[in-house]
Specification:
Number of domains: 2
CATH architecture of the largest domain: 3-Layer(aba) Sandwich
Structural class: alpha/beta
Number of strands: 11
CATH topology of the largest domain: Rossmann fold
Helix content: 40-55%
Largest sheet: 5 strands, parallel
Bound molecules: zinc ion
CATH class of the largest domain: Alpha Beta
CATH superfamily of the largest domain: Nitrogenase molybdenum iron protein domain
Strand order of the largest sheet: 1-3-2-4-5
Radius of gyration: 20 Å
Number of helices: 11
């Protein structure tokens, strides 16, 4: 995956002009690789599993960057202008639909909403129901993302369909193996201790799949949109839950300021069990730089912190 910081604007503009002039069908003849521009690190990593080196995958958000509150910069528009295809998570993960706007306003690019076909979980927040966007935390949903991306990639390059399908088949097997492995790992945590307290509501799909309860002081979005923002009542509920359930540890997230969780841990008298990858994956070279790595490391953090005897 090429992060946008590694490409120069001049190069991007140059490639963009070439791609626009040639059109999608001429990619093979030109030798230029079609470029997929993704909003989030998760969608970019899944796309990479399908296209390998046949296409270039570029991600707008860097590791640890929060998609709820991201504000696109002019360089993002120039990047999207060069795209053959754009990917977004959807379900309003991208605050104010910034990826959809970028794709529309910079050449009306084809846009895959990776959560299409996912059965969304509802979140109740102050009397309103919102759809939870963090669907990738159930590997069965990641498989849906993958198939959505595959269909769009084949449309761009039908000649490469067999390769894209083969890579997808292999990765689907890895997702099934991951799911089975997580089931086995969390079985080490007694059911009454399966409560996941994190900065914001990112882990409902993980919780629903693997039998955890979740509590967060912020709500589903860290932005100022519907459902976002911490309330004193919510915070009291979290502290009380931590005490009631005798939770041994609570967690901070890589893409959210850890201050509030540290304060809650102190107030409730529990320790911080570690840092979880939530809305963004890890830096290149870190254990969480891939989707599989992120899921593996999160699971190990949770199991290690919650399974031990108090
Ligand atoms: Zn989030």
């Amino acid at each position: 995956m090429t992060m946008r910081t590694t490409a120069t604007t001049a190069l991007r503009t140059c490639v963009g002009v070439a791609i626009l002039a040639l059109g999608v069908t001429a990619f093979a003849e030109s030798g230029a690789r079609p470029r997929i521009v993704c909003s989030t690190t998760q969608t970019a990593n899944l796309a990479l599993q399908i296209v390998g080196d046949d296409m270039e995958v570029v991600c707008i958000l860097g590791p640890g960057v929060n998609p709820h509150v991201y504000q696109p910069v002019p360089g993002d528009s120039r990047l999207v202008e060069t795209a053959a295809l754009c990917l977004q998570n959807g379900l309003h993960l991208e605050g104010k639909n910034w990826m959809q706007t970028l794709a529309r306003d910079n050449g009306n690019k084809p846009l895959v909403t990776c959560t299409d076909g996912v059965q969304p979980l509802d979140l109740e927040y102050e009397g309103q129901t919102v759809k939870d966007p963090h669907a990738w935390f159930d590997p069965r949903n990641a498989a849906i993302y993958l198939n959505n991306i595959l269909a769009a990639v084949i449309k761009i390059d039908p000649a490469g369909a067999a390769r894209y399908r083969s890579r997808t088949d292999l990765y689907l097997q890895q997702l099934r193996a991951l799911d089975a492995w997580i089931v086995k790992q969390v079985s080490l945590v007694p059911v009454e201790r399966r409560i996941l307290v994190t900065s914001h509501d990112a882990f409902n799909y993980f919780a629903a799949r693997y039998g955890f309860k979740v509590r967060s002081p912020v709500g589903w979005s860290t932005g100022s949109e519907i459902g976002g923002g911490m309330t004193p009542a919510r915070r009291r509920l979290v502290v009380q839950s931590v005490r009631d359930f005798k939770v041994p540890a609570i967690f901070v997230e890589t893409s959210v300021n850890p201050k509030m969780i540290r304060q809650i841990a102190e107030e409730a008298g529990v320790r911080v069990g570690g840092e979880l990858y939530s809305d963004a994956m890890g830096e290149a070279g870190s254990a969480g730089e891939t989707y599989l790595g992120m899921m593996r490391e999160n699971t190990l953090q949770v199991v290690t912190a919650l399974a031990g005897t108090r």
